[in-house]
Amino acid sequence: MVLAAMDPQIQWREAEGNPYQLSGKPFVGPDEILQQLFIKLGTQWEGFTVHAKDFHDAGDTVVVEGRYTGTFIESGKDADAQMCHIFNFATGRSRAFSSSSTPPRCKL
């Protein structure tokens, strides 16, 4: 469902310093996002969850505030981090995503 809501050329930018996107270059397209991020989150974390709390409508842009939680399997440490996601939409699909978050307080 999430991937189907993405524009084929979506540019996905994780928060600066995110271990899954250290280069700072965006992931482009749903398949790269799946391979480089979603699969890793699903296999390296237990119970990784995005808890969306507040949604802010700004026309073609939606800002989502909330928290990430989960347990990093390799270290066994829990994470609980504040996050802010910014989605930009066109023709009903997300064409851009950027994330800002506090770093999890656990060793990844």
Note down, in words, how this protein is organized:
With 108 residues, the protein is mainly beta. The protein has one domain: Nuclear Transport Factor 2, Chain: A, CATH 3.10.450.50. Strands 2-1-6-5-4-3 form a six-stranded mixed sheet, with helices on one face. A hairpin with a 2-residue loop joins strand 3 and strand 4. It is globular. The chain starts with 5 loop residues before the first strand and ends in a 7-residue tail after the last strand.
What does this entry show, briefly?
The protein is mainly beta.
Task: Give the amount of beta strand, in percent.
Answer: over 45%
Q: Give the overall form.
A: globular
CATH topology: Nuclear Transport Factor 2, Chain: A
Largest beta sheet: strand ordering: 2-1-6-5-4-3
The CATH architecture term is: Roll
CATH C-level label: Alpha Beta
Residues in helices, as a percent range: 10-25%
Average pLDDT level = 90
| Helix-strand topology string | EEHEEEE
Rg from C-alpha positions? 14 Å
- Sheet having the most strands: 6 strands, mixed
| Secondary-structure content class | mainly beta
